[in-house]
Amino acid sequence: MTCLKYLPEPRKACLNKIIDPTTKEQLDNGLLLWFPGPKSFTGEDCCEFQIHGGRAVISSVLHGLSKLSNFRPADAGEFTKRSFYNNKMDLTEVEGLADLIEADTELQRKQALMQLEGSLRQLYSSWRQSLLENLANVEAYIDFSETDNIEDFVLENVKENLEKLAREIKIHLSDNRSGEILRDGVKVAIIGAPNTGKSSLLNALCSREAAIVTEFPGTTRDLIQVPLDVSGYAVLLVDTAGIRSKTIDLIEELGMKKSKDQAQAADMVILVIDALYLTGIDDMDLWLAQYAKNMKVQCSNCLVYVNKIDVVPEDQIFRFKKISQSSKWTICFGSCIAEKGLTDMMEVFENYLQKLCGNPNFEHPRCSQARHRYCLTIALENIQKFLKISKLDENIDIAAQLLHNATLNVGKITGHVSTEEILGVIFSKFCIGK
Q1: What is the pLDDT of residues 142-181, one digit of tens each?
Q2: Is 70 exceeded by the pLDDT of residue 220?
């Protein structure tokens, strides 16, 4: 207790000389902040030094601290782990903090910060609490219905509550992975036949010469990946080798296989077409469908970019645009070399990104991790199996186990799983055991 009088005022910066504990040599002048638990990041007593950033200063201060008993360097992520174990954060907030540190774009930062502030914790905790209460009702019906006259309508209320919860979880999961795509970044594959201008489009989109461009077809043999920030959305542009029907070049064939694999794995595809290919085409949708089929590209989340319109007569371009107005495909026209149509194409591209990723919202948070989606899917399956049991009172033990599984899986998301809580809810809801 003697040393407590030497501690500075909590959460107030104090300028101090930093002294080596054994040699008493001054190591630096720095700021000291004292955070007594539980009002600290970890929930424990914490002290923060703000010192000058030279390597020699940092090294000497760390060496001095190592001379104190029970001091050691923290393990990777240890402060956040201590915060979790002291109930200062749940697992969704821990993941939000990690995502915030790794965020490259404004919208990634926004989503991560909302998660760190508890947007997902509030949602998943409310679902878990609902499951706990309904499970408590089922457990009470099993244990006490014969001796304590627990009414039959308890089970009907449970079914009604779980039907509502199942709808909420189902809606939450039907977001086309938008939160995960925003967090991980949108993978966009640029696909097309050789010499259609795929590399030129890549260079135009990233405003630098990221890919070699020549007049010879087949210049790109391997994948070229360029990360971009497009209006706050993280995008990974992938330029691919041109795809043709036949080739005798083994290297080109391997490149074409990679291109088709990228088209299937991408979140979005930009299908590049030489405007000359469309000359004489009347049914653009039929032609595009066959062209996309050869490229292993599906219509969903596909933006068609008709390039090289500068080498096609104006009347042909007018005809192309008129036909495209009734097309089920989203088609943009332009020229990378002449720098035509790129602004309009970028506007359409941004709309696609917004459709894929959405906009983070605290009131309606979205699933941001594959781990969350997996646990919620398992929980939903168990709830749905529970609701399909026709005679609930006769199969009450099976029904209870299904709710146990659902509660466990939602609890895994936040990191809170406890049998004691079920018992606590039982004894708080029912006057049993008095």
Answers
A1: 776 555 556 667 888 889 999 999 999 999 999 999 999 9
A2: no
Which residues, in sequence order, are CB contacts of 235 under 8 Å at separation 6+? 185, 186, 188, 227, 228, 229, 353
Which residue, 299, 361, 287, is CA-closest to 328?
A: 299
Assess whether pLDDT exceeds 50 at residue 434. no
Q: Cα–Cα distance between 409 and 382 in angstroms, integer?
A: 10
The Cα–Cα gap between 227 and 206 comes to 9
Q: Helix, strand, or coil here: 269?
A: strand
Q: Is residue 296 within 8 Å of 264, Cβ to Cβ?
A: yes
Q: What is the mean pLDDT of the chain?
A: 84
Cα 312 from Cα 274, distance rounded (Å): 10
Burial of 3 (0-12, 13-18, 19+ CB in 10 A): exposed
DSSP assignment letter at 49: E
CB under 8 Å to 59, separation ≥6 — which residues? none
Yes or no: say if 392 and 157 are a contact pair by the CB < 8 Å rule.
no
Integer Cα distance of 72 and 66 in angstroms: 6
- Beta bridge partners, 142, equal none
| Cβ partners under 8 Å of residue 349, min gap 6 | 230, 270, 303
Mention every residue, 6+ apart, whose C-beta is less than 8 A from residue 212.
199, 219, 220
Q: Is the Cβ–Cβ distance between 84 and 121 less than 8 Å?
A: no
Instruction: Report whether pLDDT(2) > 90.
Output: no
Strands, sheet with 26-35, edge to edge from the N-terminal-most edge strand: 14-19, 26-35, 46-50
0.90 surpassed by pTM: no
